[in-house]
Structure formats: C-alpha cells, structure tokens
Design brief:
The chain is α+β, with helices and mostly antiparallel strands. It has helices at residues 16-33, 41-47, 68-77, 104-112, 180-183, 267-275, and strands at 7-12, 36-39, 61-66, 85-89, 99-100, 117-128, 131-135, 138-143, 150-156, 159-166, 168-172, 195-201, 211-214, 219-223, 230-234, 237-242, 247-261. The chain folds into two domains: 7-116 and 262-275, Probable inorganic polyphosphate/atp-NAD kinase, domain 1 (Rossmann fold), CATH 3.40.50; 123-254, Sandwich (Tumour Suppressor Smad4). The relative contact order is 0.16.
Length: 277
C-alpha cells in the first residue's frame, strides 16, 4: 500500500473527443473522494477547462487517460520528480496501462486510496556530440532514406563488434522490449532487469543476433554510409541525424521512470493477455 492520494496530475490522449467523457468521469470521482486534480496548460486548452492552480510535479500521482504513447510522454515528463504514473487504457495495446476504460472508477478509487504498486523502470541516456537526452522505451537509429540500407559499426565499451548492412538498430529498455524491438525479432526483457537490448532491423546477414547489455556498459553506433544519414528517434520523437562518421552513444541512465499499477496487473499477466495466442 502507498499513501493515499490527495493531489493527482492528469495527462490525456491527443484527441480530446476520445478522452473528454473519461475526464468528466475522473473529475466526478475525484470530487467524490476529495482528490484535487491538476492539469497542464495544454490539457486545460485541449478540454476547454478554466485555468489550473499549481504545478504537476507536486502531485502524489499522475493519471494518464490514453494509450502507451501518452503514458510514455507522462513517464518522460515526470522523470526525476518522484511522481509515479498510472494509466487508464484508451489506446490499442495499453501494455503500460494499469486498467481498461471500463475500470476507470473502480481502479482509480483503489489507486487514490493507496492500493497500487510502483515499478521502477530503467531508462536510456542517449548522447550525440555534447547533447544528451533520455528515453524510457527505446532509441532507434534507422535509414533516413526509405528503401536505402545503411552501413553501421557498433561497439560495447570501446570493443568493436563489427560492421553490418541493415535498415537500422533498436536499443531498448526492458519496458521498450515489447515494442519495436519485439517486432524486429529482439528479446523480451522482464521489467526490473538492469539491461538494454540491441536488435538490428532487417540485417543483411545470417549472423546478426540481438545482444543484451548490462548496466554500466556503453553501446556505440557509428554511421559508415557516405550518402545516407541515420535518423535517430527517442521514444518515437526525432532527436538528430547522423551523417557519415557520426556517432551515437547509449547507456542505462541513473534515473528511473516510475510506473504505478494495480498490484494484480503484473508484467507476466500483461505479457500473457497481450501476446498469448
């Protein structure tokens, strides 16, 4: 059991027509339970609400009405604040969500009473030049030109592991291992593992295999293609382009994302419900 929630931040799906009625349900629940809701300015504008009072970072819990993309956005926003994020699924998969739309009132009433668990999720630090960014799910470096392969080299802690022609490479956390990494043939990493997976996208080789790298090791990816840049995205957001000779450095970050969930919604239950035939 956690402490009871007195103040909750709210983030919603990009389409207000999808989550507007759910926000009204959440507001009615919060009013009944005496929980104060805090919405960011963009959320107030999106849903036509009056001005809010106070910041989101002093909330006891952050509630997401949306899918995995919205939950990722919230986890990134609250990195380093100590605020845990709990999701109500309004997306397609909802692997990161603690409950489905129909469970909004019953699930959040439990959460507001402190009946939830917090999972500490590893994140990635991604460096290009002197710029560093964080990713909760994955960092993907792929050909910026559709239909063109790229030639890359890669290394772990400075030890070269070869050169490879491919469409790109996915470096992911355990939380991100069930996303693009899985569809590219990479391994599923159970939440709580202190490791990242490195998986190649459409490698032009019979020998290329994913690699799981533990905390404390740095992965380096270099673009060797003279005329095709590598587009680098973090959790689906464009970060930078790597021209020929450009270098991307990745390691597990010291900061962890805090995902809240109902106690029975374990990783293995999610895995079974989502991927079992």
């Amino acid at each position: 059991m956690q402490s009871a929630v007195k103040r909750a931040a709210v983030m919603t799906h990009g389409r207000p027509e999808r989550t507007g009625p759910a926000l009204e349900r959440l507001e009615a629940l919060a009013d009944r339970l005496g929980v104060e809701l805090a919405l960011a300015p963009e959320e107030l504008d999106k849903h036509g609400r009056a001005d809010g009072d106070g910041s989101l970072e002093d909330a006891d819990l952050a509630v997401v009405l949306g899918g995995d993309g919205t939950t990722l956005r919230a986890l990134t926003r609250f990195l380093g604040t100590g605020v845990a994020v709990i999701g109500v699924n309004f997306g397609r998969v909802g692997f990161l969500s603690a409950m489905e739309e129909a469970e909004l009132e019953s699930g959040l009433e439990r959460a507001f009473a402190g009946d939830y668990a917090v999972i500490e999720l590893a994140t990635l630090a991604c460096e290009i030049g002197d710029v560093e960014r964080s990713a909760v799910n994955d960092v993907v470096a792929h050909s910026a030109t559709v239909g063109r392969m790229v030639e890359i080299s890669w290394a772990v802690d400075g030890e070269e592991l070869g050169e490879l022609a491919c469409d790109g490479v996915v470096c992911c956390t355990p939380a991100g291992s069930t996303a693009y990494n899985l569809s590219a043939g990479g391994p599923v990493l159970v939440w709580g593992l202190e490791a990242m997976a490195v998986t190649f996208v459409a490698p032009h080789s019979l020998q290329a295999r994913p690699l799981v790298v533990p905390r404390g090791r740095e992965v380096t990816v270099r673009n060797l293609t003279p005329d095709v840049p590598l587009a680098v995205t973090l959790d689906g957001r464009v970060f930078e382009e790597l021209r020929a000779g450009g270098e991307l450095r990745l390691r597990l970050h010291e900061r962890r994302a805090r995902l809240a969930t109902l106690p029975e919604r374990t990783f293995f239950r999610r895995f079974r419900d989502t991927f079992a035939p």
